[in-house]
Amino acid sequence: MADILLINTGGTFNKRYDEITGELYVPADERAVEAVLAELRGNLDIRLVGMLHKDSLEMDETDRDRIAQAILDGAERRVLIVHGTDTMHLTAAHLEKRCPGRRIVLTGAMKPHAYDRQEAAVNLALSLGWLLAGDGAGVHIGMHGLVRPHAGIVKDRAKGVFRAV
Q1: Around Cβ 83, how many Cβ atoms within 10 Å?
Q2: Which of 25, 34, 20, 96 is nearest to 58 (CA)?
């Protein structure tokens, strides 16, 4: 069993530019997450699972159920989810009901890793560190230097940053 289950659902963290269409898209791969994990030099035992591969604005309750089931099917007590920032609060609330007893953090990025590697890497590393530093269960959001219970952090759309409430 791995120490951490990392579920990559897509979101802006993963987006890339399609030179043909001129649009950003969420690829069906784990390249962005794997690039950040490579910097850990193999020091953590992480099981990476890719699923959905979509913008969070396209997610529905069926998608949230699939994420919850992936968590429940795994033996890991610590779970990190790379998720789009627009609806991560909805997924967090869903997981709180479905996955008691797990230590879960949802993280993401406001800018694609392909264009700003720092924000994505910092948010992922912050969330990994927080997962490993404690044992308490609950569903949290880790963004922009904060890790808080999901009801205690919001996306301030006017300022383009997550903040504690």
Answers
A1: 28
A2: 25
Rounded to the nearest integer, the mean pLDDT of the chain is: 98
> What CATH number did the domain enclosing 68 receive?
3.40.50.1170
Place of tokens 């950003």: 24
What is the Cα–Cα distance from 5 to 56, expressed in whole angstroms?
20
Taking the C-alpha atoms of residue 10 and residue 55, their distance in angstroms, rounded to an integer, is 6
| DSSP state letter for 134 | -
Q: Please list the residues that pair with 162 across neighbouring strands.
A: 155
Q: Residue 158 and residue 119: Cα distance in Å, rounded?
A: 18
Which domain range does residue 70 map to? 4-164
Report residues of the chain scoring pLDDT below 70. Answer: none
**Count of other CB atoms within 10 angstroms of residue 157:** 9
Q: How far apart are CA 53 and CA 112, in angstroms?
A: 14
Tens digit of each residue's pLDDT (9 = 90 or more) over 96-122 = 999 999 999 999 999 999 999 999 999
